[in-house]
Amino acid sequence: MTETFDIAIIGAGIVGLAVAEALAVKGRRLVVMEKNDAFGQETSSRNSEVIHAGLYYPKVFLKSSLCIEGNRLLYKWCKKHHVPHQRIGKFIVATNEEECADLERIGVTAEENGVEALEFLGRMQIKSLDPEITALEALFSKNTGIVDSHRLMQTLLARAEDKGAILTCRAEVTAIHFNGATWDININDGEYRVITKTLINSAGLHADRIAALAGIDIDESGYRLKPCKGNYFTATPAPKINHLIYPVPVKNNIGLGIHTTLDLSGRVRFGPDSQYMSTSQPLDYAVDESLKPVFYESIKRYLPGVPIDALNPDMSGIRPKIQGPGDPVMDFIIREESERGLPGLVNLIGIESPGLTACLAIGAYINKIVSFR
Ligand SMILES: Cc1cc2nc3c(=O)[nH]c(=O)nc-3n(C[C@H](O)[C@H](O)[C@H](O)COP(=O)(O)OP(=O)(O)OC[C@H]3O[C@@H](n4cnc5c(N)ncnc54)[C@H](O)[C@@H]3O)c2cc1C
Question: Whole-prediction pTM value?
Fold first, then answer.
């Protein structure tokens, strides 16, 4: 069976769904193809669910502009569509003099980037807001929040479907062919075909494989992904905290450091850490209990009241990183591929954090850079 569409999106994670919502208009034929049984079963349901404010990224990065814009759009969306969320606020805590200097630098970069609602707090102010934290100084970001990512994806899909978009699950893209005018996509090894003028690759951890299927040399283009696992632990009993707590990130950070988050039910989680995985292995989400001492050492610097015996392994997620071990921090790649002779193909590569925060801004950005044929 063969079906023809104007736009086909590979991947029903939070970004694929946000792009579908942004591009769906009545009368335009749009399909989202997802290999799993339902939307959002990979990275989009394995993360900290934090609405970031855009504090860390270099100003020229899409990560910075799309995060700041995405933060604004996401609060608006959540309010309008009744998605549970909370502007809970976050501390970045400095526990020694060197970190205090780093914190100053983070504050300067964030303000230059246009991040609003930031405040430096001293030891006593921190204690009065969150008595269990021990820190010399903190940068407090009022616009950092938390969101119910599953409800968010449900509302994005519902809005896209209202405008005529179709989600098809158990539909794995297994081959892609460009005939010079349209894209011919093979699903489930020949079970059916989709023909489309515009093809959007939002396949998360598999986006490099999709780019390769479309004829791109992923090493020469810099699209090869280096999956990087992030493990989480919980604590019983949990510390009583009122805000998100992040350490000062180390240079060329591959993650933001083992932080402490709350979800909307008040559950406290620690993580994620950062561990590169072998690309030849299948994705493994098991959390190794032997990581407990590393988590304990990290957390005790700013939450000294959590005993090591209280920690229990929780879930994990895997970052689709372009940045390999030892590399400098890298930006999202969001590119329409006409210059490679592949018009109508849009690749989204390396959409790690703050991809959830940025999802609506990414949808708006693609609407701007792509001219629909
Ligand atoms: C540990 C961790 C913590 C994070 N914390 C935060 C946070 O607090 N705040 C924040 O803003 N961001 C955070 N992020 C980042 C955020 O989770 C991601 O940027 C976002 O979920 C990416 O969404 P996506 O739609 O691009 O990818 P995914 O959710 O991975 O979706 C891609 C989809 O493509 C499908 N797919 C792949 N290949 C094919 C194929 N061949 N055919 C059909 N379908 C295919 C997959 O099945 C999948 O459903 C975190 C990430 C991690 C790993």
Answer: 0.97
The answer to whether the CB of 26 falls within 8 A of the CB of 166 is no
Q: What domains, with CATH codes, occur in the chain? A: 2-46+150-224+329-369 (3.50.50.60), 90-142+227-321 (3.30.9.10)
Regarding the beta carbon of 258 and ligand 1, being less than 6 Å apart is answered no
Span from the CA of 43 to the centroid of ligand 1 (angstroms)? 4
Give me 126's structure tokens: 């921190």
**Residue 121 above 60 pLDDT?**
yes
Q: Is it the case that residue 253 has pLDDT exceeding 90?
A: no
353 lines ligand 1 (CB under 6 A): yes
| Ramachandran region, residue 20 (left: φ > 0; alpha: ψ -120 to 50; beta: rest) | alpha
What is residue 254's predicted lDDT score, i.e. its pLDDT? 62
Measured in residues, the chain has a length of 373
pLDDT tens per residue, range 173-200? 999 999 999 999 999 999 999 999 999 9
Average pLDDT over residues 287-304: 96
